[in-house]
Amino acid sequence: MSVAYLFVREDREYLLSPGERLESDLGILEVPEDVSPGDTVETHLGTAFRVRKLRGPDLFNHFERTGAPMMPRDLGLIIGHTGIAGGDHVLDAGTGTGVLSASMARAGATVTTYEVNSEFADVARENMELAGVRDSVDVRTGDVTEELTELRASESTDDTGKFDVVTLDTADAPTVVANASGLLVDGGFIAVYSPFIEDTRETVEAAREEELEDIRTFETIQRRMDFDDRGSRPSTAGVGHTGYLTFARKQ
């Protein structure tokens, strides 16, 4: 996919590349080849669209989906609690749509991510190109639990360790956690997302067996606020709970 921008008007938003043509009830929009963020372009009916550069929240909305992507609130907690930054090397498993991998890469990390479904992996690679992080994210097709020995032996960010952070969104996360010491640099973090408390407990038990430190689990809940003429209160729409996040650190 070539570079793409958002074309925005009030409650309308389209993802388009230079040279594309959009037909809608607002008219025909011919996207100029030299379009850039900040421009205003019009349809043949005179309807104006503002051109924007894609940012993190836009990726969540416009990535091609192969399932439910990780929510922005979960992405923020993972990056915030592990301190992912430029120069870090991250091992990720359960790529899915690739929102987490792309977000970590946009924060400056180099990401190696595993996806067992080959079709999902292909979509994730296309999404990495859309996010502008194709060179920073290596999407591998396969089961990370079958590659642990090789990863411990071959992947290295320096002379003393392997990965700065390991992020997992898979049912077999406890198996990877049980090998965390051989994957992480000293002081490195592991972060595990799970929708089920039973899996979360297994992850915590594996982290304890591995003698990881600072083991913490959070339920992620977020409520949107509504403000109108009658008053202000939490929204009654939507689901506030997404899942459980467990963090731990190598000594």
What brief labels describe this structure?
single chain, 251 residues, alpha/beta, Vcp-like ATPase, Chain A, domain 2, Rossmann fold, 2 domains, 7-stranded mixed sheet, 4-stranded antiparallel sheet
Strand order of the largest sheet: 9-8-7-10-11-15-12
What's the overall geometry?
globular
Quote the beta fraction: 25-35%
N-to-C CA distance? 42 Å
- CATH topology grouping of the largest domain: Rossmann fold
CATH architectural label of the largest domain: 3-Layer(aba) Sandwich
The ordered H/E elements are EEEEEEHHEHEHEHEHHEHEEEE
So what's the oligomer here? single chain
Could you tell me the number of beta strands? 15
Low-pLDDT residue intervals, each spanning 5 or more residues = none
Secondary-structure class: alpha/beta
What's the CATH H-level homologous superfamily of the largest domain?
Vaccinia Virus protein VP39
* Total of helices: 8
CATH class of the largest domain: Alpha Beta
InterPro entries: SAM-dependent_MTases_sf, TRM61_C, tRNA_MeTrfase_Gcd14
Protein name: Methyltransferase domain-containing protein
Domain tRNA (adenine(58)-N(1))-methyltransferase catalytic subunit TRM61 C-terminal: 73-226
Keywords: Methyltransferase, S-adenosyl-L-methionine, Transferase, tRNA processing
